[in-house]
Amino acid sequence: GNKELVVSLFQAVVLLQFNDLKLKERISYEHIKEQTGIEKKELDRTLQSLACGKVRVLKKHPKGRDVSPTDTFNVDEMFDVKFFRIKVNAIQMKETLEENQETNERVFLDRQYQVDAALVRIMKMRKKLSHNELVSELLSQLKFKAQVSDIKKRIESLIEREYLERDTEDPSILKYLA
């Protein structure tokens, strides 16, 4: 019978490739890639959601969990779900270690202004403070975890920009410059 599929844009584009085919006809991965223009990573995710997910609208040959460029696909003629409206969930790709590290760096770059502001606020209030006391007070004020090495870089940056200076007699003491 008739079914209403709730799919993403990429899933819809891939499914449209099967519109004019007979049920048993197969389409290669390369043909789908060429016809749709979807990049490999996104196409892999899309085909995996349509052929390997909970709701399998397509059949993948050879069977398996991962999609490769040598695979072929056809409409699943045995597709039978009792509901009229069926949501085909997209599969989320895991973030690679490299992407995760890049994201963390970008987040800290966004937060560095917050760290700078907190450092200046503490020093403006205290006028003179040891490096260790400053770091511990900063860590207690921040709402996120910050690496001590990153905090040290921010302190050095404030010294270069002449917000802070080291004490001439004791270099571990920092002074606020008005």
From TrEMBL:
UniProt superkingdom: Eukaryota
Sequence similarity: Belongs to the cullin family.
Cellular compartments per GO CC: cullin-RING ubiquitin ligase complex
Stored Pfam families: Cullin_AB, Cullin_Nedd8
Matching InterPro entries: Cullin, Cullin-like_AB, Cullin_CS, Cullin_homology, Cullin_homology_sf, Cullin_neddylation_domain, WH-like_DNA-bd_sf, WH_DNA-bd_sf
Entry protein name: Cullin family profile domain-containing protein
Any one Gene Ontology molecular-function term assigned to this protein's record: ubiquitin protein ligase binding
Keywords: Ubl conjugation
Ubl conjugation is among the record's keywords: yes
Gene Ontology BP terms: ubiquitin-dependent protein catabolic process
Residue span(s) of domain Cullin family profile: 1-51
